[in-house]
Structure formats: C-alpha cells, structure tokens
Amino acid sequence: MTYNEQEFLQLSGLQHFSFCRRQWALIHIEQQWQENLRTVEGRLLHGRAHDEQQRERGGDVLILRGLSVFSGQLGLSGKCDVVEFHLSQEGIPLQGEEGLWLPFPVEYKRGEPKKDDADRLQLCAQAICLEEMLCCKIAQGALFYGEIKRRVPVAFDAALRDEVVRLSDEMYALYRRGHTPKARPTKGCNACSLKELCLPGLAKHRSAATYLTRYIQEDEP
Ligand code: SF4
C-alpha cells in the first residue's frame, strides 16, 4: 500500500504505538501530552542530536543531523537524529561529495537499552524511509543510549521490517477510525508520561463512581 503525503503520520509515534496503543492515540489522535522527567530529558538529548543543517566530515564518514525523512510505503514522516554516510563501494553518490556513501542512521535515546523493540522499530522505520528516498539498501544502524553512553548496533532484518509495516498499517487503521483504545494497565504504566491523564487506576474498577466511592471509603478513619 502507498499512503498519501497529506495524511502521513509521525514516524516517532511508532515507538509510542508499540509501547501502548492507548498512549499513542492520546498523543496523536487526542493531542494530549504530559511532560514528565523522561520526556524533558529525552527532548534535551534530542535537542543536541537535532542540531539541524549541520554537515560534518570526519575521515571516511560524513554526518548529517536532523535530516527530514518520509516513506509513502509506511505513510510516515519525521526526522533522523543523525545519519552517517560511510564511504563504501556499496554506497550511493551524494551531491557535492566524491565517491559512494552508505547511509547509517543513529538514534539517540535517554536511559538504557529496553527489553522491548520500540527503539529498534523506530530506527528501522527511519532506515526504510532513507532507502525509499535514496534508492539504496541499508542493512544496519545504531541506537545510542545516554545512560550507558555507547551505541548498540541494530540489524534491519526481515522480521523487524515486517513488524514496522504491520504496525504502521495498524496505526493508520486506528487513526482513520479516530479510535482511542481503552486503558489496559501494565507494569509499563509506571514509566508512562500520560499516566495521570490516562488514569489507569480507573480501568481496574467498573466505573468512575465505584472508584471514587472506594477512594473516599479508604480515606475515612
Ligand atoms: S498509563 Fe498505561 S494504559 Fe495508560 S497510556 Fe500509559 S501505558 Fe497506556
């Protein structure tokens, strides 16, 4: 399927979507956003990485920051923190540069590597965008984690690519329906920036009235 440019969704939403469909819908359908320490820290880290229009050259590596990318296949658009172009016979020509250059996306994240695939999926979506825009094949990239201060390599294998396509299609289906899924509290809710808005505690009870009644009773001496 090819999506219309007018309806492209935010590429960065893919990580929210894979973490929690409801969180994604609150942010991208209902336009809710609540800052917490994690989102502020994440933005500061991205601010440094997204130093737009910068182009650096270090030996056989050319570095571009804040590069805008999109994909009609995924229907997503966004920005890459950093795209390195490595001098390689398997690369592509770049305007103003001699030789062939192989793109290598690098995404900056606060914290440490996660157990789930959210970060890998976002990076892989960036790679698919770059492949579509530059007519090339990108086999790998890397995630840089602020807490461990090093890169973790990511291979863009068939399984990861299929999951990116499947999730972006599902994201579109929800977006077109304008549907926000119900809260399904998990351990991940503790780290969720929308915890207070989402009120996962309410989902454990039958209704808001039941929740408030219990809350008042528990508060009584
Ligand atoms: S609090 Fe939990 S259920 Fe609600 S949006 Fe966040 S992760 Fe999803």
From TrEMBL:
GO terms for molecular function: exonuclease activity; iron-sulfur cluster binding; metal ion binding. Mg(2+) or Mn(2+) required for ssDNA cleavage activity. Its cofactor is [4Fe-4S] cluster; iron-sulfur cluster; Mg(2+); Mn(2+). GO terms for biological process: defense response to virus. CRISPR (clustered regularly interspaced short palindromic repeat) is an adaptive immune system that provides protection against mobile genetic elements (viruses, transposable elements and conjugative plasmids). CRISPR clusters contain sequences complementary to antecedent mobile elements and target invading nucleic acids. CRISPR clusters are transcribed and processed into CRISPR RNA (crRNA). The gene is cas4. This is CRISPR-associated exonuclease Cas4. Belongs to the CRISPR-associated exonuclease Cas4 family. Signal peptide: none annotated. InterPro entries: Cas4_exonuclease, CRISPR-assoc_prot_Cas4, Dna2/Cas4_DUF83, PDDEXK-like_dom_sf. It comes from the Bacteria. Transmembrane segments: none annotated. Keywords: Antiviral defense, Exonuclease, Hydrolase, Iron, Iron-sulfur, Manganese, Metal-binding, Nuclease. Its EC number is 3.1.12.1. Residues 12-199 form the DUF83 domain.
